[in-house]
Design a protein that fits this description.
Blueprint: H1 2-11, H2 25-46, H3 56-69, E1 84-89, H4 109-126, E2 130-134, E3 148-155, E4 168-171, H5 178-196, H6 207-210, E5 223-231, H7 236-241, H8 243-258
Helix pairs in contact: 4-8, 5-8
């Protein structure tokens, strides 16, 4: 009896043996996610992309790429574009086909304006600016934003009198920043006069210039002027043969304004 009792006691498991710890739901969810990710990885690695439906292969690739780079730093912002300047080529418009002033030998104002504006643009690009060449009635003028806008024109081919020589510069009559308009005008008058030797005719600025259509189209923060570079009659020589001087005068005036350079008043008319 004692031996049987001992045998039974040996075969009967003890109630003191600890039960395995119960795993929580969160742990089970983690296991499911890990297993799913491993299966997805193996499925992607061993399955040709051509056998995957739709763009599923691309989505798997994106998931894997994200996993590989999730600790990388965020990309740096794209560098801002260079400061922008706008140049309107007077009478350059495919719709109106108005060449501006036309001389007896066929020379047109638009030819002169284009040649000068192209030279001005190149100078300013070399100085580190982006430059738009705009048409007379360009759609971009609506709400146009830039450091400044200059519209380039030339005066009549007709002989008026011996005083019909020189240049004119005008800003908008109703400019909400009159001090900036005056500054831009003064810079161009000073630098253009110095470069070309032409006289400044402030008393012959017309209403068409001070009420130039683009002034009402561009953004209010874009300071703008219009310049009549000279008369195609008495100033024809410099307007056709001295276009580098013309372009230097305009670009120097623009840079004077942007860089807030000193303006000499000793030679001011």
């Amino acid at each position: 009896m004692d031996s049987d009792t001992d045998m039974e006691s040996k075969e009967t498991p003890s109630n003191s043996t600890p039960n395995p710890p119960q795993r929580g739901m969160f742990y089970q969810l983690q296991v499911v996610i890990i297993v799913a990710f491993i299966l997805a990885t193996l499925f992607t690695a061993w399955t040709p992309a051509s056998l995957l439906p739709g763009n599923l292969s691309e989505r798997f690739a994106q998931v894997l790429a994200f996993q590989a780079t999730e600790t990388a730093a965020f990309p740096t912002p794209t560098a801002r574009p260079r400061p922008l300047i706008g140049l309107v080529i007077g009478h350059w418009d495919d719709k109106t086909k108005d060449p501006g002033a036309v001389c007896a030998d066929g020379l047109t104002e638009i030819e002169v304006n284009q040649a000068i504006a192209t030279r001005v643009r190149q100078i300013l690009v070399n100085e580190g600016f982006d430059v738009d060449l705009l048409r007379e009635f360009d759609e971009k003028l609506q709400g146009y934003q830039a450091l400044t806008l200059v519209s380039i024109h030339a005066d009549s081919c007709e002989y008026i009198n011996d005083d019909a020589t020189g240049f004119k510069v005008a800003a908008a009559l109703s400019n909400q920043y009159p001090e900036r308009a005056s500054r831009l005008t003064a810079c161009i008058v000073d630098r253009y006069g110095r470069s070309t030797g032409l006289a400044y005719h402030s008393n012959t600025v017309t209403n068409d210039m001070s009420s130039y259509h683009a002034f009402d189209e561009i953004d209010n923060n874009t300071n703008a002027v219009i310049i009549e570079t000279g008369f195609l009659n008495l100033d024809r020589q410099i307007l056709t043969k001295g276009q580098d001087q013309i372009a230097n005068g305009i670009s120097d005036g623009i840079l004077c304004y942007i860089r807030n350079e000193d303006i000499s008043t000793s030679d001011e008319p």
